[in-house]
Design goal:
This protein has eight helices and 42 strands. With 802 residues, the protein is mainly β.
Length: 802
């Protein structure tokens, strides 16, 4: 959740203060003297629309030709969520001086008038009323989701936000877009980097590079050859990850259609029925048809002509070899499909991927018998089958599940696959999606089984890497995974828990509050102190300067009572507006809930968003200079990130210091399955710095009182074996409790089919007796209130000395 500069205030109990704030800086690509986005229309095919397709029009305001090869047009929803992704349409060719360039996008069911012949085609379904379109140098998806972050991305050539778009240039987005209205620049193509000033809404007027306007249709496709050419699919795929024919035109490539994708990145797969004898050279290939629905079906014998390209679907990913701008001749239909390669514990190697010392593995010869990713690359675009696979990642909102073909590979106690170390990758994981919209993947939890045969085409995508585009799905066997309930704390035990509640704000549905509250009151058995991560301000991602969370916390506290829990009080420090990361306008922060019937909070004035808390050595023992307080909040370690919240509590007459954390996310790290091996973990640098700050603060408490009871907990966003954790525990000031569990229990989060630990509780040496539990209620389930599992520690605290 990202943020801007203003005052901040200590909030405790039900007290809040309103603060004056400044606006979030808007994204500003440098004013263009050449290419600009001249018109954007997302209402194509909608009810009431005339045009059948969405489109983006570019214009060249310069006096020389503008090359568009290697550039892309990208789209982001107007109010992006954590799961929102920039969608990409690749460009080619050029724009003449003063000319236009038309990029057609997805078609709807309405409208009667076709666009003029497009200069480039994409398959993006843009919203009619709100969204952001960027012209980008390169084809890797952008990752920015705020105006400020996009302003810092030098790849953006031009950017237009319309409707209520959060990401835009200037003071505000362009109003008035609808099913019947586009947003367009004036004839002068003025670009002052203020979308609201430069563009206005009106009737859509698409113009292509030839100067043609709407009313015509797409140019008829040239007829393809009727005899196979000299090039086969294995010639295209070659013995490395990049085709030896990349960029070349090919004619009459033969194959049988094995699968058709009619939505999203449209196209179809073909496979050669006469393979060569080299296991490195793949026999399957994707044919990209852009916005046009494929006019083939499985079993068609075809000849495909077009251009061989390597498509990199994301930053740092491997590429997908494909034929673009295809011309297809169907020779016959109803042909048998090639036999599927079996992927199982025997066929998939135990090693993950070769090393290139951090460099690209693109040019390394494939070794499919030695490395799992080399085997998957050699089978890219080919038919594969898996059988009786265990689900290791629950069904997502994108109708995807993760399975393992190696049931004995690092199993968790509850059916998942544990991510054990950087060197011990889980090679049997694959994502499964269905190519049949009438039969999506079933709703499954971790530990369930896809019984029987699942078959389809092995594809590659930015999220998750290799995946099975299934044409045949096994039958789901429900293994009855149940949510855990931890035991209640005893009278002399202080129960302290951590829970990432995933962007909770007062505008969320009551159902989310109720489910999270049940997790606290029932599954966590009402801990005495609860450190919360991802509490947003009261109006969530509305970026209007609101920083208080009183309404959010009041609703949450009421919901906990309704589920049988105690009446919690709370304490927190509001962040400066737009300074703590996360969703723009969300003002994410850490919060303490505590049960005043069991524990008291020592409120001590002086804490605010920018004043660092200190350990104060007194004759009665160590205390905090302010409670609540923040740990070194102005350190560069916390730039655009959540600052740790520390509070002083008293239980049975004894002080206990609690530090709630939410370290910087892993966004920007290279993927495990990517082209760079070993992958760079660029986000780790900031987390190590943050860990050093927290470690130093804990050390200052222990210097004043070596027996001080300190509990550091929260979403550390890193693994128990990471440099972050080594830094956090340096000098023995903190013990990571996750390491006290067996290997099959060390996880609180599931990502890409890996059960892993991001959340932690750590204790100081003064805490000698404890009972620790990760309470699995979310991460393994398709139906989840948060993507994190909470955890709790119960520590024994003796009464005061008499």
């Amino acid at each position: 959740m990202q943020i801007s500069r203003s005052g901040s205030v200590l909030l405790t109990g039900a007290v809040a203060a309103a603060l004056a704030v400044t606006a979030l800086p808007a994204a500003q690509a440098a004013p263009s003297a050449t290419a600009v986005i001249s018109e954007v229309y997302g209402g194509g095919g909608n009810s009431g629309a005339t045009l059948t397709r969405d489109f983006v029009e570019l214009a060249n305001a310069g006096s020389t030709s503008f090359e568009t090869g290697g550039l892309s047009v990208q789209y982001l929803p107007g109010s992006p969520s954590d799961g929102s992704r920039w969608q990409v349409s690749e460009l080619s060719g050029s724009i003449a001086p003063g000319g236009r360039y038309l990029v057609s996008q997805a078609a709807g069911n309405g409208g009667t008038v076709a666009l003029p012949t497009a200069d480039a085609t994409g398959g993006i379904s843009m919203a009619a009323g709100s969204g952001t379109v960027a012209l980008v140098s390169g084809t890797s998806p952008l990752t920015c989701k705020s105006a400020a972050d996009c302003a810092a991305d030098a790849r953006i050539v031009d950017l237009v936000g319309y409707g209520s778009a959060i990401v835009r240039e200037g003071s505000g987005p362009v109003p008035g877009a609808s099913a019947t209205a586009s947003v367009a620049r004036s004839a002068s193509l003025a670009d002052t980097d203020d979308n609201a000033a430069d563009l206005t809404a009106g009737a859509p007027t698409p113009v292509n590079g030839k100067g043609e306007t709407s009313g015509g249709g797409q140019e008829p496709e040239e007829p393809g050859p009727t005899e196979p050419g000299e090039v086969r699919i294995h010639d295209i795929q070659g013995t490395t990850r990049v085709s030896p024919l990349h960029g070349a035109a090919v004619t009459g490539v033969p194959g049988v259609v094995t699968g058709v994708r009619a939505a999203g990145s449209r196209g179809f797969w073909i496979q050669d029925t006469a393979p060569d004898d080299d296991p490195r050279t793949g026999e399957g290939l994707f044919v990209y048809t852009g916005s046009a629905a494929p006019a083939v079906k499985a079993g068609d014998a075809v000849l495909v002509s077009g251009k061989v390209t390597e498509y990199y679907p994301g930053t740092g990913t491997q590429s997908l070899t494909q034929i673009t701008a295809p011309r297809t001749t169907v020779l016959s239909s109803g042909n048998p499909l090639p036999a599927a390669a079996v992927l199982d514990a025997r066929s998939v190697p135990g090693r993950y991927v070769p090393s290139a010392d951090g460099g690209s593995i693109d040019a390394l010869p494939l070794e499919p018998s030695r490395y799992a990713l080399d085997l998957y690359e050699a089978l890219e675009g080919s038919r594969v089958e898996i059988a009786d696979t265990r689900v290791t990642g629950a069904t997502t909102s994108y109708d995807e599940i993760w399975v393992t073909v190696k049931p004995e590979e690092n199993p968790s106690r509850r059916g998942g696959t544990v991510y054990a170390s950087y060197e011990d990758q889980n090679t049997g994981r694959l994502k499964v999606m269905s190519l049949d919209p009438e039969r999506p993947v079933p709703t499954a939890n971790v530990g369930d089984v896809l019984k029987g045969r699942t078959a389809g085409v092995l594809d590659y995508a930015s999220y998750g890497g290799y995946n099975v585009q299934a044409t045949e799905l096994g039958t789901l066997v429900d293994k009855k995974l149940r949510r855990e309930v931890t035991r209640e704390q005893k009278r002399n035990e202080l129960a302290v828990a951590t829970y990432n509640v995933e962007n909770l704000d007062a505008r969320d549905d009551q159902a989310k509050f109720d489910t999270l509250a049940e997790g606290v009151a029932v599954n966590l058995s009402s801990p005495d102190i609860l450190s919360l991560e991802e509490i947003q301000d009261d109006n969530g991602a509305v970026n209007d300067g609101t920083v208080g969370s009183e309404a959010t916390l009041r609703r949450f506290a009421d919901a906990i009572v309704a589920k049988g829990g105690p009446r919690y009080a709370w304490s927190y420090i509001a962040p400066e507006n737009n300074e703590d990361g996360g969703q723009p306008g969300g003002n994410i922060r850490n919060v303490f809930l505590y049960n005043p019937e069991r524990v008291s909070f020592t409120a001590r004035a002086g804490g605010d968003a920018t004043t660092p808390v200190r350990a104060v050595d007194t004759w009665k023992g160590v205390r905090l200079s302010a409670s609540p307080g923040r740990v070194s909040p102005t350190s560069p370690a916390w730039d655009n990130s959540r600052k740790p919240l520390v509070g002083e509590f008293v239980f049975r007459g004894r002080p206990v210091f609690v530090i709630g954390n939410h370290f910087a996310s892993k966004g920007g790290d290279q993927p495990l399955h990517g082209r760079y091996q070993e992958p760079t973990r660029s986000s780790e640098t900031q987390r190590v710095q943050q860990a050093a700050e927290v470690n130093a603060f804990v050390a200052s408490l222990l210097k004043a009182d070596k027996s001080a009871r300190v509990i550091t907990l929260g979403d550390i966003n890193d693994f128990e074996f990471s440099p972050t954790m080594k830094t956090l525990t340096k000098g023995g000031v903190l013990k990571p409790l996750i390491t006290t569990l067996g290997a099959s229990e060390r996880y609180s989060y599931v990502y890409d089919g890996n059960s892993q630990t991001l959340d932690h509780i750590l204790t100081s040496p003064g805490i000698r007796s404890f009972d620790y539990d990760v309470v699995h209620i979310n991460a393994e389930f398709a139906d989840q209130a948060s993507d994190h599992d909470p955890q709790v520690v119960r520590i024994k605290v003796s009464g005061p000395k008499r």
